[in-house]
């Protein structure tokens, strides 16, 4: 009896200690128990499913992925919170205007980690990772000065329209998301091979590994950021630059450095707001209108001193030692297989392009290449042999 009494006292003291710890450390208890609880994850997924036209279903694998992301990516999302706050309103506007679910704003996190200049090994570029053909089909401009796949607003509009097209094809947002990753042909083939199923989870076994993981990764990312407060992620909708921005139509060729110096704006601010201009120069192209995004106050100053700024820019260009990069259209793409004896200088001369452009198109960090390696080339000329 004495032993039982001692056990009872021990249990009582332990429970009191745990209770006191919970009151004094509510966040630790919440993180260790509440966020990683299966029933909680199921309930939250069901709530997400009820608020979005994107079908969200619980699976044990999805739960494990959510737990993994909570353990490994919470700090990362906190570090990227200001970038998320800046880009999400841009994504939401494009999606809403094209009648696509707002939750698709999480796709660029999966696609590019919100890096507007991201280039994949296959050549997919920008926040939404558009391939060349898809970019052209959806109205984005590409030339030696401008790659609108890197333009946050224009690429978001193109992505929203493209996703809506994919939805119209499959009448299912999850399949549209999968098709965005793998291409519609891959999804259609998987549907045929599955025996005609038109649900992602039923055709998943017939999809490439990357696409099979892509949709769960999207849902897990959505889950974590939809419940960002519960996971102590500081997404608070504050503007990245702590000020509003505006766009100005540019009438003459001008460099970022001219704008930054004349208007006394940090150059990296101009570069951050305008990632689509490859050479950090806004070109003057006949019958084309180009804009620059600036903090609102500096945009007003640009408009007020526009002619003075153009004169200043013209003088700076005249005093420039290096010639300006050549302007040419990028309207075709080839995949070039490297042969024995090839080097980047030889390939660049062969197709009439610059070495640095080949490196940029293929995300090369140096000029080392090897036989049988494949390169994406946007040629200015096609050699006769």
The total number of structural domains is 4
E-strand count? 6
As residue ranges, the low-confidence spans are 1-35
Number of helices: 19
Strand content: 5-15%
CATH topology annotation of the largest domain: Lysozyme
What is the CATH C level class of the largest domain, in words?
A: Mainly Alpha
- Give the strand order, joined by hyphens, for the main sheet: 1-4
Element string (H = helix, E = strand) = HHHHHHHHHHHHHEEHHEEHHEHHE
Q: Could you please describe the fold and organization of this structure?
A:
With 385 residues, the chain is mainly α. It folds into 4 domains: 2-34; 60-226, Lysozyme; 245-318, no CATH class; 334-377, Membrane-bound Lytic Murein Transglycosylase D, Chain A, CATH 3.10.350.10. Helix content is 54%, strand content 6%. It has 19 helices and 6 strands. The protein has helices at residues 2-24, 26-34, 38-51, 60-72, 74-79, 81-97, 107-112, 132-137, 152-170, 173-182, 184-193, 200-203, 209-226, 256-263, 267-273, 296-304, 306-318, 344-351, 355-361, and strands at 245-250, 254-255, 281-282, 290-295, 334-337, 374-377. It is globular and about 65 Å long. The N and C termini lie far apart (98 Å). Residues 1-35 have low confidence and may be disordered.
